[in-house]
Amino acid sequence: MGATKTEHFTDKQNAIATLAKALGHPARVAIIDYLLKVDACICSDIVNELPLAQPTVSQHLKELKNAGLIKGDIEGNTICYCIDEKALDKLQSYFANISTKLEKNKKDCC
Amino acid sequence: MGATKTEHFTDKQNAIATLAKALGHPARVAIIDYLLKVDACICSDIVNELPLAQPTVSQHLKELKNAGLIKGDIEGNTICYCIDEKALDKLQSYFANISTKLEKNKKDCC
DNA sequence: AATCTTTATCGTAATATTGCAATATCAATA
DNA sequence: TATTGATATTGCAATATTACGATAAAGATT
Fold it and tell me: How confident is the prediction for chain A on average, in pLDDT?
């Protein structure tokens, strides 16, 4: 085996898992951090910013894009990547919701 | 290769990546969902709840525990797993912070 | 003590991820 | 049009993840 059994879970669970997985690598977290920092959508000095070879960075960008966390527009011979707010909003509200529930329950086991 | 180059990233980036990675599988999202739903720290009917074999569930629980997302206490011959608020708070504030920054920048590229 | 119940571990097969060198692509510029 | 610069793709090696059957461990029950 080795393949995730996605079909047995709800769409929502799969959606969160996909987004979380995309952020499950420090390089990809670093890319998001960088895109937030340079508040214009500066393109890929990302390669210079990261301690990884260009093909590796390109691959990480692709994964972030597939997951919907970033979008990229061609702009001449470079590409302008930027954060896709929708995906991050989804994550934000997911965790905010969890925090609310945890606050309410306030059980003291474990 | 194939091993993540964690040493090149910041502690914070690695910390977020570790937590996100732990949620990067629908079964583990489902486990968190379940622990939230049963508002007592009910133990492992989790196995019955999930479409996976017991050793597989046990492995997923171990990963959530290693990442710090859940904690488990032995209680007789069963184990009481429950959500570790600290980790979820960390995620919640990470994404809340991102949302705030996105709100502020409101750039319209891409 | 023998058995049951619950959970963990081991071993292993299938598959996915990570990383990079080499190469391709393609728009801009000389 | 030949070259440069930015990005993507291919191919491959190393490693990690996912899943589960078999088995182990250990408290509870008979």
Answer: 89
